[in-house]
Fold this sequence. Notes:
It is a single chain. This protein is mainly alpha-helical. It has helices at 7-19, 29-39, 45-87, 95-100, 102-138. The two termini are 22 Å apart.
Amino acid sequence: MKSSIPKQSKTISALIHISILSKYFIPLGNYIIPLLLWQANTKDSFISKNGKEALNFQLSLLVYSILLVIIAIPFVIYTLANTAMSFDHQHHITDEYFLTHINEFMGITIFGIIAGLCILTTLVVEIVCAILAATRASDGEVYKYPITIRFIK
């Protein structure tokens, strides 16, 4: 079956997957470019399957990002409120203040590290998966992205 897929279909499908990385150069390019390439070639079932996969992956990452922000908001508000309330009208942070409020500083630091690792992991997974998907598409296969919710069927 792989050999029956025209080279042009493989190339366009690979471009769809690689185009999700355009978000680093073009705002919303990870949605717009794959959508345009897919919609311009909806009659080709191979391109259609690849387009749906790429867009579903991007939409899934968006949903996961929104959920992480929603989860993070209460923690950030609590930490900032605690820090602001305990600041007690001082105009600068002294060593004594720091030592008595180390838990708040540690909480902010740990939260920042965890958030940074989540963002870094998402970026690496996105880049690696896009390259794998493009490679598979150029070989005539449809790559199934991990952790993807199938919004578009």
